[in-house]
UniProtKB/TrEMBL annotation:
One of its GO terms (biological process) is transmembrane transport. Residues 71-278 form the ABC transmembrane type-1 domain. It is a multi-pass membrane protein. The keyword Flavoprotein does not apply. This is Sugar ABC transporter permease. PROSITE patterns: ABC_TM1 (PS50928). The chain crosses the membrane at residues 9-33, 74-97, 109-131, 151-179, 205-226, 257-279. Its main location: membrane. Keywords: Cell membrane, Membrane, Transmembrane, Transmembrane helix, Transport. InterPro entries: MetI-like, MetI-like_sf, UgpAE/MalFG_permease. One of its GO terms (cellular component) is plasma membrane.
Length: 288
């Protein structure tokens, strides 16, 4: 490789490398470093001093019951919400690609529009719709308290689904557009109907896009923050430790930044393990 090509490679990758280090690697390393410290006071009212504590914060994390309850809560949330959301996204993408829908550009925009609404704004809007005293749908809210402890998690799941169905639909629909039309023509010649074509050709061809959206959804589930934070204003069932990220936020507000950093590191590792395990599982099934 010539020196000219080497300089060109460094020229193009340097901006990415600098931004990647500044906004990804350095914050992660800083969080790990902070998680290894603890606060020590000399006397009851003595000044606080940061001292090296090793794994003290991590022992507290793994013995923190509310934190692990919040992890179980978001895992249950993801196990129900993610398949429903991606199933709807796949259905809408197949519907747009089927040729049965007129005005595809209009419906693509309509489906994507909720994603353009900021998550906090969407949560506030749905919070008012769920509130028995404020909702225009009193016939529903008077018979079912959607902000009760048993239903508030699924009320938030509805908000997340409403926001992200269109986003995931566009990813899957873009993958459908990349499928060669010759494959559909061959299937039609062989006598395959619309349902058979979708099931045996379209879905397998867009499986990489479905895997991608699933990984994004797993990461987003464990990072759930805006919806529960907003819903705390509408429901007493949502506590300061309702989700892992809400636990991190409330811990840092005490303030106990070292424990919050330890929570963040453990949560990041859990997210990585789940995402990586799902990728390996899908790759293994693909090879088989």
């Amino acid at each position: 490789m010539s020196k000219r090509h080497t300089r060109a490679i460094f020229f193009f990758i340097t901006p990415f490398g600098v931004l990647f280090a500044l906004f990804y690697l350095i914050p992660i390393l800083y969080a790990i470093w902070q998680s290894l410290y603890t606060v020590k006071r000399s006397g009851t009212f003595g000044p606080a001093e940061d001292v090296f504590g090793g794994l003290v914060q991590y022992r507290q994390v793994f013995s923190d019951g509310p934190f692990w309850q919040s992890v179980e809560r978001v895992l249950l949330f993801g196990a129900v919400q993610v398949p429903i959301m991606l199933g709807l996204a796949l259905f809408l993408a197949l519907l747009l690609d089927s040729g049965l829908v007129q005005g595809r550009r209009f419906f693509r925009l309509v489906y994507f529009l909720p994603y353009a609404v900021p998550g906090v704004v969407a949560a506030i809007m749905w919070g008012y719709l769920y509130s028995p005293n404020l909702s225009p749908f009193t016939a529903v809210t008077s018979n079912a308290d959607l902000l009760s402890p048993s239903l508030v998690l699924w009320a938030m799941a509805n908000v997340v689904t409403w926001v992200y169905v269109g986003y995931n639909m566009l990813i899957i629909y873009s993958a459908l557009l990349a499928v060669p039309t010759e494959i559909y023509e061959a299937a039609k010649i062989d006598g395959a109907g619309a349902f058979r074509t979708a099931w045996s050709i379209k879905i397998p061809m867009v499986m990489p896009a479905i895997v991608l959206t699933t990984v994004f959804s797993i990461i987003g589930t464990l990072q759930l923050l805006a919806e529960p934070q907003v819903f705390r204003s509408f429901s007493s069932a949502v506590s300061s430790t309702y989700t892992p990220n809400l636990t991190v936020l409330s811990t840092s507000g005490i303030p106990n930044f070292h424990l919050a950093a330890a929570f963040s590191v453990v949560l990041a590792l859990a997210t990585f393990v789940l995402s990586f395990s799902f990728l390996k599982l899908t790759q293994r099934k693909g090879v088989q």
